[in-house]
Amino acid sequence: MKVKVVTNILKANTRIAEENRRVLHERGITTINLMSSPGAGKTTLLARTIRDLGARIRFGVIEGDIQGTHDAEVIAALGVPVIQINTAGGCHLDANMVQSVLPELPLESIDLLVIENVGNLVCPAEFDLGEDAKVMLLSITEGDDKPLKYPRMFRECEALLVNKVDLAPHLDVSLEKIRVDALGLNPALQVFEVSARGGQGLDAWYAWLEGKLKH
Amino acid sequence: MHELSIALSVLDIVRTAAAESGLARVTTVRLRIGRASGVQPDSLRFAFDCSTAGTPAEGATLEIEEVPVGGRCDSCEKDFTNPEPYVLACPLCGGTRFRLTTGDELHVLDLEGEP
Q1: φ, ψ at B32 (rounded to 5°)
Q2: Which of A105, A127, A180, A198 is the most buried (most CB within 10 A)?
Q3: Does ipTM top 0.90?
């Protein structure tokens, strides 16, 4: 006996992501899904952004890591509500993991929720979490070949922060190639060249981020 | 890289469909997987075999229909199929503005079994 099914395998994830999006929108929260490879500087960027904008924007953070609470501790030290998700080996966050921790955050007092995904340029791009925008960080020490090697990630994002540009004089890496290849994959991509440590270029990122706020 | 979680989602869908149709045992599950979906058929088969043990789908054959990556180019305005999983430029004219229309499919199509 044959049974027709025709069901999207990711349907369950998409459905939960839509529920997350509805819950967050009802509270006027803007949600960013921040992705990069390990060590690109997601937590450094996030901590710096919170320090610089924390007086104007009420942040909330979900940290996704395979294990440990290092990143959550960095964010908690800034006085921002943060929840750590440990995926125990899982290579990405999914909508269900995010849904399960939302009740632990003080949603009524958050304007901007940043979900720091597991460091990985492959799988996180494929799972909708309920965010308003996917943002990726590429550090120039990773090389200028990354847009063409990980095209899906670059296609899925609205904004790309090219980080650690203060190291450019020490590296054989072309910022121009990164920009041209990334825009070739995704002509609508907003590209910001920044140093999360030194502060260079962050004003344009902050302006973009503030433009995403709902009120 | 995350074929196990995909396999578990497939198993959920299969168990629900089997229960609704009164199948006690599932013998074949047919999937449609796009080449740009990021899912490797061989890894998925392995993960599926591991995760179906002790379920009505234990021992079921996983048939995977792969869908090539296709799109429509904004420059030459033609439909194309790309041999590689990722398209960087239109394979017909080299144009870099195009819309992808196929290749990210991840669907359970149907299943066969016995009551």
Answers
A1: -120, 120
A2: A127
A3: no
